[in-house]
Amino acid sequence: MPGPSDSPTPPGSGGVLDGRGWYTANEVLAFLLELAALACLSWWGFTVGGPAVLRVLLGIGAPLMAAVLWALFAAPRARLRPRLPAVLAVKALVLGGGAAALYGVGHPVAAVAMAVVVVVNTAVAEVFRRRPEAAPTGRVVAVAPPAADG
What is the pTM of this model? Predict the structure, then answer.
């Protein structure tokens, strides 16, 4: 009978519960949430009351503005990379705007669900960002302890 040391996936070698798989899944979810936010902003823009010209401008302009903000400040390869609070503010504006747009088109339960998933996803991403062993490369960077004075 195989013992615990005979497991097919040794610890840290890419098993289901290692950080790399969860990191990747969370990043995929983040991308899908970004796309959903853009879609919700567009949906809201095209269905808001007013003349047809205004609806077209909002339906195209709202997600376009959100995408530009995201590309400039919040994307992994953003043109301008401000400190974390500013990045989180842009993410809250775009992703929260998507949830608010979903609420605006008459889907309050879905809007709350989207907002909760966005908050959890962002919090998990922050945890992975702070844990070097969960980095996408799968490598752990060892830091030497400070030399003892003596």
Answer: 0.74
